[in-house]
Automatic annotation (TrEMBL):
The lineage of its organism: Bacteria, Bacillati, Actinomycetota, Actinomycetes, Micromonosporales. It is an enzyme of class 2 (transferase). Pathway: Purine metabolism; IMP biosynthesis via salvage pathway; IMP from hypoxanthine: step 1/1; Purine metabolism; GMP biosynthesis via salvage pathway; GMP from guanine: step 1/1. It catalyses: GMP + diphosphate = guanine + 5-phospho-alpha-D-ribose 1-diphosphate; IMP + diphosphate = hypoxanthine + 5-phospho-alpha-D-ribose 1-diphosphate. Keywords: Cytoplasm, Glycosyltransferase, Magnesium, Metal-binding, Nucleotide-binding, Purine salvage, Transferase. It is found in: Cytoplasm. Belongs to the purine/pyrimidine phosphoribosyltransferase family. GO terms for molecular function: glycosyltransferase activity. This is Hypoxanthine phosphoribosyltransferase. It comes from the Bacteria. It comes from Plantactinospora siamensis.
Amino acid sequence: MADGSWYDADIDHVIISETQIRDKTAELAKQVSADHADVPDGLLLVCILKGAAMFMADFARAIGRHGPPVELDFMAISSYGQGTTSSGVVRILKDLDRDIAGRHVIVVEDIVDSGLTLSWLLRYLESRSAASVEVVALFRKPEAVKVPVPVKYVGFDIPTEFVVGYGLDFAERYREVPYVGVLKPEVYARS
Ligand code: 5GP
Ligand code: MG
Ligand code: MG
């Protein structure tokens, strides 16, 4: 293969660079660590698969540099309904491995758009008697501002555009792209 990656030809423009993501992740981890320096049994990070997988890996290591001990757990959920807008009706594909009663939980999310998925998830986690539930989301779109979903830690506010990379997919592809960008229109025409 020639220099560069196969996906470079498909990306129209970069929205957030690899360096920006790295710096912001360190900053978010510092804030979360400072706010939770004294949690007795550490934080439970709950990654929402698959989109938040990259962020989880980097965020957990960044917390490790200054913060309290963490445990990692993973959930996979899927919104019922067609198309690109979530309905708010959610199905659990993979549940938490362990009981979260009494734990201080940080939900690690890739991006908050309508906020419907997240608001369902917060109710679910609270019903399982966590001591506290907070959210860190790397990206947020303007729509999310309209929903009363408390996202305590936000990395970047981005425009209302469909983005891929750093865990975010289009038809399961582009998750490995190390930055976040917008696809060329012809990529959609191809599929
Ligand atoms: P909502 O907040 O609308 O319930 O859904 C948010 C979920 O939809 C995110 O966690 C993410 O998986 C997906 N999503 C929202 N916006 C985008 C986007 O621009 N690109 C990609 N690839 N996924 C998105
Ligand atoms: Mg997500
Ligand atoms: Mg997706």
